[in-house]
């Protein structure tokens, strides 16, 4: 069977070779890079602009951004028909292609995040390594940890006041430099679509900007929700542990801090959300007003075939409802959870409507294609380009985050206040 | 407080910083690129399709699939034939069942998913067939977007795919406005019409041209002024497909109609 | 080196160096910018040879004429003279060495490619004599009554 045939339904006049070649994984790709970029921008708000209220979430979102990083590449590897050749993008890059820069931008960005993490955690690495060194008769686990942290220090053992000051300065520089790179990483994911002149829906110079704005929205939303979940767990643990260690902060203290962080972060989320929606609507109005050759088929896709996923799921449930939820006074944690979940859905649907919606019509402008998401992974192809492949991608950052927190403690009660 | 000294220092830093990315482009040496572009090739392959002559027999599609080892029963093809039927009430119907591999043997128009549209003989205003194949554009957008240099244009204008280097991202398929590209069901890399490069470089004609009993398809060398195809393109009224994309397609059509997609 | 701040940069440079080495080792030497410039001619030159050496399957009627001159003359003088032998007889490939005999397509499906009547006066199809395959002796093979090399003659019994 031809690649694409299993999930494409053709209607009216479609060229014989046309199928939905870019499927759920290409929806996941900008969604995931968006989360990476958004999480990083959020952490930079504290490091660069000194938004003090975000201190608690800043370190967290930095680690989370690092955990998301390999996952931004995963959907692409799932999608490639020759994933083992993916490295060719680095070996023989063809820079007239928007995809060619991916390897370089991605690696640069990865290095920036990794370096920033290193500076943030260097003191911790040194202290832990030195502590473990003192332990006589180390167990295998301790031995491994000692080795790991010793390597992670990269031989820089100096943790004097002066050295730590330099670390802090480096973090500021990296966080500042990382913002344009993060925006570039994602904006150019938008460019990959926006520059395809053969696709009437994708081709717009607004695409990169729309992508960045919705990326920041989704990144902030994901950080908020993960932050809330981990805080809830912490509250439970603290409540339980306080029986033995009364010096720990009370659940009420934690909760007030949590609400404060969430309210603050929600403000930034709303800002970027407004920007994203404005640009998207501008694009839509402009297309309808200029009504070039492709408008007939675009209109029947936007207002007909994809009406539910665009106007109900994306703009309605995904944008308008959370917008109201966040703007109502006295934001509660529960409302924030609902709001952020809906925002994530909205951004995901936006990616879906761009990627799948862009292939919903034939380039003959006289026929339609419908994407049937493969559910059951009956073959490798159906797994990779189906629901379970997407779920694999969605779950991985949380697993990576969990592993990372074993090495890099995110919630260190000692210095969180 | 901004002092003059400080201001100058910062400005220099900024300018210097901005110059770094510009310097990165120097590595590619635009001069060298331009020098290589000088056109010494003796051939530039072009194609001529006469839609008046085409009868929709589909022998071209059959021959192409066999000649170029595209699995016969796979629903993809390097070349195909489209049928256009315009009825008296102004509606346009178009189809290409299986790319017309088995020709058009019925008057019913395929609408996809096993649905058909019956059209009465007396309702037809005009009806014709349009063979399609790769346009070997002068500005091939598919080549422009390949991230690894796995698809490229030869000196004689044919766009080829390197099967050992293609990563299978599908960007070229998305970039082609004519829908000629697809994934090869066996090699799992991008696949497309290449004017039967193995035949034209041996002095033969492409398989579809040889298979066409009606002379509806012809291939020629636009750099040879004595080539009959060149003469027709130069002296007669020919059209191209989707000019608005700026791809400069090199497949020319006689008898193109506004209904052709 | 006193300043530890540059340590991550060294790691980064190491990774870049590794990629450059891999590139040097792995990328074929003939990979580069060729005739059509960087935008359209960035490729592995030897791939052109791969496509030039692709196997030819259809040898055209001139090839058939070498041995089957009588048949060639027969069909060339008939209204079917413009149909290439291999359209019905299959690609010659290495025939007669390999394969020794070709598979001839005598099916109705082959004939109705042209002779199923379609009322398309504005195209070449409308000028071909045609039948309705559903009503015109649907159970019979065309070659039972029609001689394919020269439709003006009756079929050989």
| pLDDT averaged residue by residue of chain C | 91
Largest interface: B-C, 65 and 46 residues
Alpha-beta classification of chain C: mainly alpha
Which stretches of chain C are low in confidence, meaning pLDDT under 50 for 5 or more residues running?
none
Rg of chain C over CA atoms, rounded to whole Å, is 30 Å
Structure in words:
The complex is a heterotrimer of chains A (about 425), B (about 260) and C (about 160). By secondary structure, chain A is mainly alpha-helical. Chain A has helices at about 25-45, 55-80, 90, 100-135, 140-150, 160-195, 205-240, 250-290, 295-305, 305-325, 335-355, 380-385, 385-405; strands spanning about 10, 365-370. Chain A has a domain at about 25-195 and about 380-410. Chain A has a two-stranded antiparallel sheet with strand order 1-2. Chain A is globular and about 75 Å long. Residues about 415 of chain A have low confidence and may be disordered. Chain B is about 25% helix and about 20% strand. Chain C is mainly α. Chain C has two domains: about 5-50, no CATH class; about 60-145, no CATH class. Chain C is elongated. The interface between B and C is large, with 65 and 46 residues.
Q: Summarize this, please?
A:
With 261 residues, chain B is an alpha+beta fold.
Which tags fit this structure?
heterotrimer, A: 417 residues, mainly alpha, two-stranded antiparallel sheet, 13 helices, 2 strands, 2% strand, disordered C terminus, B: 261 residues, alpha+beta, Alpha-Beta Plaits, three-stranded mixed sheet, three-stranded antiparallel sheet, 12 strands, globular
Topology:
The complex is a heterotrimer of chains A (417), B (261) and C (157).
Chain A: E1 8-12, H1 24-47, H2 55-79, H3 88-91, H4 101-134, H5 140-152, H6 161-194, H7 207-241, H8 251-290, H9 295-305, H10 307-327, H11 333-355, E2 367-371, H12 380-384, H13 387-407
Antiparallel strand pairs in A: 1-2
Chain B: H1 4-26, H2 30-37, E1 45-50, H3 59-67, E2 80-87, E3 92-95, E4 109-112, E5 115-117, E6 124-132, H4 141-144, E7 151-153, E8 159-161, H5 171-175, E9 182-183, E10 190-191, H6 197-200, H7 207-211, E11 217-221, H8 228-235, E12 251-254
Parallel strand pairs in B: 1-12
Antiparallel strand pairs in B: 1-11, 2-3, 2-6, 4-5, 7-8, 9-10
Chain C: H1 7-26, E1 31-33, H2 37-41, E2 42-44, H3 46-52, H4 61-65, H5 69-76, H6 85-89, H7 108-115
Antiparallel strand pairs in C: 1-2
